[in-house]
Design goal:
The complex is a heterodimer of chains A (112) and B (116). Chain A is mainly β. Chain A is 0% helix and 56% strand. In chain A, strands 2, 4, 5, 9, 10 and 11 form a 6-stranded mixed sheet that branches. The termini of chain A are far apart. With 116 residues, chain B is mainly beta. Chain B is built from no helices and 11 strands. In chain B, strands 2, 4, 5, 6, 9, 10 and 11 form a 7-stranded mixed sheet that branches. In chain B, strands 1-3-8-7 form a 4-stranded antiparallel sheet, with no helix packed on it. The radius of gyration of chain B is 14 Å and the shape is globular. Classes of the chains: A mainly beta (112), B mainly beta (116). At the A-B interface, β5 and β10 of A face β4, β5 and β9 of B.
Chain lengths: 112, 116
């Protein structure tokens, strides 16, 4: 089946950039997503990228996609303490139910 | 607009007890999902539904049953709870997309279930 992998932890200092990485195995992915989960809450969509794109920028967020290496990254510029959360990458597979396959999540800790 | 609402938010069960988790969405979404979240394992799909009256198995369906009698509700049942089912359960809903369209899954706040 599909396999989406992420590092479990990342710590950065406030004001620095954060880069969260994700690798996936399904080459037929159409969309790739980044979700954010704050403590005690559900997941919220941060941004997404279509598989025929290699970069997408949205304010402080930059998504890079290397389809050849099946590698996705999320860069957060000027990281703030409010960015501390778990970040999940996810992919849509070619099934009929828009089944999202999630990575393990990366816990980002921002040090003041 | 409430979005996706899960009840209850917390529950403690004894091994062998049964319970039903309720998910309700008010966005007229066709698709609904139940995931479980375990440390270091991300979210895994238990069951999903592509419309009223239809359900299908996901990645980890054993020990769970679901029903989608009404479009807005998706119920997850545990007939005989086991400690391995201790987890945080998330419901999500989305609208169907065709090729070339994006989709966003909206998540509930989660239900923390402990089986002792």
């Amino acid at each position: 089946g599909e396999d989406v992998e992420q590092s479990l932890f990342l710590s950065v200092r406030e004001g620095d950039s954060s880069v969260i990485n994700c690798t996936y195995t399904d080459s037929s992915s159409t969309y790739l997503y980044w979700y954010k989960q704050e403590p005690g809450a559900g997941l919220q969509l941060l941004t997404y990228i279509f598989s025929n794109m290699d970069m997408k920028q949205d304010q402080r967020l930059t998504v890079l996609l290397n389809k050849k290496d099946k590698h996705l990254s999320l860069r957060i510029a000027d990281t703030q303490t409010g960015d501390s959360a778990i970040y999940f990458c996810a992919e849509i597979t070619q099934t009929g139910a828009n089944n999202l396959f999630f990575g393990t999540g990366t816990r980002l800790t921002v040090i003041p | 607009n409430a979005g996706v609402t899960q009840t209850p938010k917390f529950r403690v069960l004894k091994t062998g007890q049964s319970m039903t988790l309720l998910c309700a969405q008010d966005m007229n979404h066709e698709y609904m999902y139940w995931y479980r979240q375990d440390p270091g394992m991300g979210l895994r799909l238990i069951h999903y539904s592509v419309g009223e009256g239809t359900t299908a198995k996901g990645e980890v369906p054993d020990g769970y049953n679901v029903s989608r009698l009404k479009k807005q509700n998706f119920l997850l049942g545990l007939e005989s709870a086991a400690p391995s089912q201790t987890s945080v359960y998330f419901c999500a809903s989305s609208y169907p997309t065709g090729k070339g369209l994006d989709t966003e899954a909206f998540f509930g706040q989660g239900t923390r279930l402990t089986v002792v």
